[in-house]
Amino acid sequence: MNIIQLRGVVGRSDIGSYNGNRVCNFSVVTEYASRDREGNSVIEPTWFNAALWETGGVVKPEIDKIQKGTWVEVTGRLKIRKYTSIDSVERVALDVFARSVQVLERDDTTMQPQRDS
Question: Helices H, strands E: what count in the chain?
Answer without folding.
Answer: 0, 6
